[in-house]
Design goal:
The protein is of the alpha/beta class. The chain is built from seven helices and ten strands. It has a domain of 151 residues: Rossmann fold (3-Layer(aba) Sandwich). The structure holds adenosine-5'-triphosphate (ATP).
């Protein structure tokens, strides 16, 4: 099936608002080395929806998120993010934020600098000190990310995703390494993103938690995405 038959292709110049879908994937395949990781992923996600992405270890969740963030190019198939072709790296990166499982921070920048830098990259201004307070990191503002604990790095990455509030926000294992308060914060901040109309994809092994902010659940199995039944 060809997406181009049903959609007017967007370029970086055309506004994404023409597409009611945040994600449209058609028969996406991805090979890494000798392994075929994605085997015909087809998925439609309306703008503003919250999706929980489930699957066993090694199922390909992180890989799929990287494809959606334009960090990996599909071997074949078609994909659009807010109407932009997935292969249009620049447009996709302008609209998509990926919070990776390891937080993806600059280790030699402080907490404040990491947030300032991310905002500057998107031409945004925001209350960085307030965001650090919100995630309980006010005292770590001046510490380099490399000297933060895994849970503190996660909180910093969460503050960044929340400040950026990109129209499509992809979150890989947001609950890992967090204490109870941290997990509640994830739910609170990701919930606020949803309220602001952000499309959210959460890869997680905790469906009960993730579905509180991303109610529709899909499962990656054998390289394909299947709709998960039941609440
Ligand atoms: N750079 C790479 N080169 C080759 N294979 C890779 C590469 N990165 C990941 N893989 C393989 O892709 C498959 C999917 O990995 P991925 O990290 O996407 O799984 P996951 O569903 O996120 O797993 P987990 O729940 O353990 O985080 C695994 O078999 C992994 O070995």
């Amino acid at each position: 099936m060809s997406l181009s038959t049903s959609l007017t292709p967007s370029t970086s110049d055309t506004p994404h608002a023409t597409s009611p879908h945040a994600l449209q994937l058609r028969d996406l395949w991805l090979r890494l080395g000798r392994e075929v990781i994605l085997r015909g992923v087809t998925l439609d996600v309306p703008a503003g929806e919250g999706i929980t992405l489930l699957g066993e270890n090694g199922a390909g969740k992180t890989t799929l998120l990287r494809v959606l963030a334009s960090g990996l190019r599909p071997t074949r198939g078609e994909g659009r993010v807010l109407g932009y072709d997935l292969r249009d790296n620049r447009a996709v990166r302008d609209h998509v934020h990926l919070m990776p499982v390891d937080a993806g921070l600059y280790p030699d920048l402080t907490g404040t600098e990491n947030l300032d830098f991310a905002l500057r990259m998107h031409g945004q201004h925001a209350d960085v000190a307030g965001a650090l307070r919100r995630v309980g990191l006010e005292r770590a503002a001046g510490r380099r990310a490399r000297f933060l604990s895994a849970g503190m790095r996660k909180r910093l990455a969460l503050a960044r995703a929340w400040l950026l509030a990109r129209p499509v926000t992809l979150v890989d294992e947001p609950f890992a390494n967090l204490d109870e308060g941290g997990r509640a914060l994830v739910l609170e901040l990701l919930g606020e993103l949803r309220e602001r109309g952000v499309t959210l994809v959460v890869a997680a092994h905790e469906p009960g938690l993730a579905r509180q902010v991303a109610p529709r659940a899909v499962r990656l199995a054998a390289g394909r995405v299947e709709e998960e039944r039941g609440a």
